[in-house]
Amino acid sequence: MTMGYFILDENHDVIKVNSLFETMIFANGNYGNDEYQNRCCTWKQALEMHVEAIEWLKKYLLSEEKYEFLEEIDSLLEKRKREILA
Questions:
Q1: CA–CA distance, 63 with 56 (Å, rounded to integer)
Q2: Which of 7, 12, 17, 83 is most buried by a 10 A CB count?
């Protein structure tokens, strides 16, 4: 999972939308049904978007029966939720 700032898109073109933050997940390291991507404009939206991404990842891991990561995912989810409320 990544969350980053960007000004240029993947083709190095100036982005024509007001998106500064992007969160992406490639659960198996490739494109497909295991992919999550979202963009937004503000830091608060980015934190909220990250919470959505973490919740998406948790559902994905449960569907794939990959339980060993769930405790770490829950910890990260709670951390992000606290940051949003701060």
A1: 11
A2: 83
- In the structure encoding, which two tokens stand for residue 30, read together? 């490739």
Q: With contact defined as beta carbons under 8 Å apart, do 7 and 60 qualify?
A: no
- What is the pTM for the complete model shown? 0.66
- Cα 31 to Cα 83: distance, rounded to the nearest angstrom: 30
Tokens for 26, please give them.
Answer: 């490639």
One-letter amino acid at 22 equals E
Chunked mean pLDDT (size 10), the chain, 86 residues: 56 59 74 74 87 87 81 85 85
Task: Name the token pair of 44.
Answer: 């608060």
Question: What are the extents of the domains in the chain?
Answer: 2-85
> C-alpha distances in angstroms, 66 versus 29, 32, 35, 59?
15, 18, 16, 10
